[in-house]
Amino acid sequence: MKLALFDCDGTLVDSAALIHETMRRTFDKFGRPEPRFEDTKAIIGLSLDIAIARMQGRPHVEQQDIDMTAHYKSLFSIVRQDLDYKEPLFPGIREMIDLLTGREDLLIGAVTGKSRRGLNLVMETHGFDKHFIVARTADDCPSKPHPAMVTECCDETGMNATDTIVIGDAVYDMQMAKAAGAKAIGVAWGYASVDELIANGADAIAYHPNEILRHFS
């Protein structure tokens, strides 16, 4: 048996535009300089309060970051409706997930910096909720790259980390996988560069979702 743990933003769905617009409105509300799109992409994958602190050059979360996090959360669904933005799947993701869910020797889960509500919305929108049997979010665990998301998913499913593969687009995903003792596959269609993924521990790079399948053969 193997356990496949997928990151969400930048790996399964393309949510950068939605995240950036919500972040832009949040920074504007608090009178902060508008972030660049590149700045937003660089923090996708972290828990939200840590991400906001990092975007302002702070190594630790302060009260303003907590206040901005609460405002961001209150805005997210509004911005999603304003943009009529449904966080689309990257090309090939649905077909890859459909093939993996047909396997009797494989369990599928999610490890994400999203809130539990945000992950559930993505899963329901794309009909994945019945395929992902375990998940850990920013509401459940410390932020990536802490290994807790992976280790807790392993504990819940009775799997060993050595039989677990983390698939993600961020350096934090690679670092988390390595810290947990799991294998790490970086995806080239997300928000970090291939060089960054390799430098942070990726055991392999997938340039298309169908390339992920061979790691479960």
Describe what you observe in this structure:
There is one protein chain. The chain has 217 residues and is an alpha/beta fold. It is 44% helix and 12% strand. It has helices spanning 16-29, 37-43, 48-55, 63-83, 93-101, 116-126, 148-157, 171-180, 194-199, and strands spanning 2-6, 106-111, 134-136, 164-168, 183-187, 204-206. It has a 6-stranded parallel β-sheet with strand order 3-2-1-4-5-6. α6 links the parallel β2 and β3 (134-136). α1 (16-29) crosses α4 (63-83) and α3 packs across α4 (63-83). The chain is globular and about 50 Å long. The mean pLDDT is 95.
Distance between the termini: 11 Å
Principal-axes geometry comes out as globular
Percentage of helical residues? Answer: 40-55%
Based on CA atoms alone, the radius of gyration comes out at: 17 Å
Tell me the β content: 5-15%
Number of helices: 9
Order of helices and strands: EHHHHHEHEHEHEHE
State the oligomer: single chain
How is the biggest beta sheet arranged?
6 strands, parallel
Task: List unreliable stretches of 5+ residues.
Answer: none
Tell me, rounded to a whole number, the average pLDDT.
95
Provide the structure class: alpha/beta
**What is the strand arrangement across the widest sheet?**
3-2-1-4-5-6
Number of strands: 6
Protein name: HAD-IA family hydrolase
Keywords: Hydrolase
InterPro entries: HAD-like_hydrolase_sf, HAD-like_sf, HAD-SF_hydro_IA, HAD_2, HAD_sf, PGP-like_dom2
GO molecular function: hydrolase activity
